[in-house]
Design a protein that fits this description.
10 strands; 6 helices
Length: 272
């Protein structure tokens, strides 16, 4: 008996890939001549193709689901100097006033004016100033202590609008301290810090010579402080940083005050 191996081309590939052995067919010897066919040159063996690779060719690639890497903590809105930066710079006080201020008529004098490179600052409360132009929020009906004027006026000569313009009240020049001798005047830019928020305001009004800690309705509202002139305000925890020689004109240009404030805050934080 002779054996005839019937192996197809695809069978060769399967052999290469480790498939089962080919089928062996046994035939009688005398049938060999009848079945004989002219010999052909053997086909070259097909290159081995791993089945795993074939599967990969026909598999749609998985869509990448990428998440953004966690961002580093911002210094503030848009990356500018934030509340923590300003408070860190104002953590120590080099007193420049000849005495200390009260936060209210009945309070003891405990608030000094501190000096720093290009600025002065103090830490106090925030009473609501609604003085100036009559508006829906600021008028004699909403504020028993309402006064229809401010120490500094807009470019057209009118009182400031406490409801819409962030401004700060400075104490009148006196024995404790004189703001005019420190490069501060109407329209000077102030960074007001409360909690994690910073508002850039201007010096817009002048108050009693022995009290500090007052800002406009708009300033309080932007800092998340209740702006009601009769019941709102903050009892403590407000820092006022006044930048020397930083006058904004016209005084009502809040966008200019913010631009100047951000630039001066950067200088204040970076100063030696």
């Amino acid at each position: 008996m002779r054996t005839l191996a019937l192996v197809t081309a695809s069978g060769a590939a399967l052999l290469t890939a480790g498939a089962p052995a080919p089928v062996i067919l046994a035939v009688p010897a005398d049938l060999g001549a009848a079945l004989a066919v002219p010999a052909r040159a053997p086909r070259p063996a097909l290159p081995a193709v791993p089945l795993a690779l074939v599967a990969q060719v026909h598999r749609a690639p998985a869509r990448a689901h990428r998440s953004r890497p966690p961002s580093s903590p911002a210094r503030g809105r848009g990356g500018e100097v934030g509340a923590a930066d300003l408070l860190a710079r104002a953590s120590a006080c080099e007193q420049v006033s000849d005495g200390e201020y009260r936060t209210d008529e009945s309070a003891s004098a405990t608030v000094p004016v501190c000096g720093a490179s290009g600025a002065v600052f103090w830490k106090a409360d925030l009473d609501i100033d609604c003085d100036g132009r009559v508006t829906a929020a600021c008028n004699p009906a909403t504020d028993p202590a309402f006064h229809g004027d401010t120490a500094f006026h807009t470019s057209d000569g009118r009182p400031l609008d406490a409801e819409r313009l962030p401004y700060v009240v400075v104490p009148a020049p006196g024995a404790v301290w004189d703001y005019t001798g420190a490069g501060i005047g109407g329209g000077a830019v102030v960074a007001v810090v409360h909690g994690q928020k910073v508002e850039y305001a201007v010096v817009g009004d002048v108050g009693p010579a022995h009290i500090v800690g007052e800002a406009s309705y708009a300033t309080a509202k932007s800092l998340g402080i209740d702006p009601d002139p009769s019941s709102g305000g903050a009892h403590s925890g407000v820092t006022y940083i006044l930048f020397k020689d930083s006058r904004v004109s016209p005084i009502e240009d809040h966008e200019a005050a913010m631009r100047t404030g951000r630039a001066r805050a950067e200088e204040f934080v970076r100063a030696d």
